[in-house]
Write a structure and sequence with these properties.
Number of strands: 12
CATH class of the largest domain: Alpha Beta
Structural class: alpha/beta
Helix content: 40-55%
Strand content: 15-25%
Number of domains: 3
Number of helices: 11
Shape: elongated
Radius of gyration: 23 Å
Distance between the termini: 49 Å
Amino acid sequence: MQDLHLRYFQSVAKTGSLSAAAEELHVAVSAVSRQITNLEQRLDIKLFNRQPRGMQLTEAGKLLNAYALRNQLEVNSVIDEMQDAMTRQRQTIVVACPDGMAWHFLPSVISRFITQHPDIRFDLQMADSARASELVKEGSADIALTFSLSPDIGVKVVSSHNAAISALMSSEHPLAVNDVLYVKDLCDYPLTMSLNGSTMRYLFDVACSLSGIKVFPSFSCDSLGATYTMVSEHPNMIGLCSAVAVSGKMHKDGLVLKPLHEPQLSQRSLQVQVMAERYLPAHIEAFLVVLEEKLTAVVC
C-alpha cells in the first residue's frame, strides 16, 4: 500500500469530505476521489459511505484509520528517538485530563518528573473525560487521565484506580468528626459541586434520588480550583471531589476529606489511557511508571 493512498485516506477521514481534504492537501478534488477509489478497489473493501453531507467511515474504514494513526505515531516516535540520539533533541509528552486532575495532582507529578528528566517537555491539555480519550485515540495526546464508568474502544487502559466521590470540608466543620457521611448529612450545609453534565454530578444526583432527597448547591462550577477556594474560605462549605484530586494539598490548608457511604458514589474510576496497540517511546513509558507510583500511593 503506497504512502500516498494512506495520506489521502487519512485526510478524508479527518475532514469528512473530499473537497476539504483536497483543500488540505492542495490538490484537485478529482485527485482525492481517484486515490480513495483506487484504494478501495485495491483492497476490495468499502472504506467510506458517500453521503450528501460528506464521507463517513465504514467499520472497515475505522479499522484502517486506527492503524494509520498508530503507524504514523510509531514512525514519528522512531524518527524522534533517532534524532534525539544524534542531536539530543528535547521530547514532549502531551497529557489530556479533566480540570480536576490538571489543577494540582498532575502538575505535582510532572514537576517531580522534570526534576529528574530536565530534557522532557510537557503539554497539559484540559478536556472532559470523553474528549481526553478522543485526543488519545486520534493521536493528539500521548496519555489521558479520565474519570470513567466503563471501558472505551480504541484506547488501552494502563491502570484503573478508584475515584470515589467524597466530601471536602474544613477540619473545623461540624461534620468533620464523622468517619463516614451520607448524602442526607449534607442537606443542612452549603454545597459546591460541578455543573450538570459531569460524571460526578450525575452520580451524586442518582445517590440523592435513591435516598429520597434533593440537594441544591450554593455554588456550581467545573473548576476544582474554584471549588477548593470556596471550601477554604467558607467555614461550613462542603465540596465534592476525589481523594487524588486534592492529595498533598488539603492537609496543608486545614481541610479534610470524608467518604460518602452511598455505593453510587464509588462507581467512578480514574483511568490512565494510551492509544491501543501503540508502541510507546521510552520517555513516555518512564513517565507512566512515575505516574502509576504516585496514583497507587494516593489511592491506597
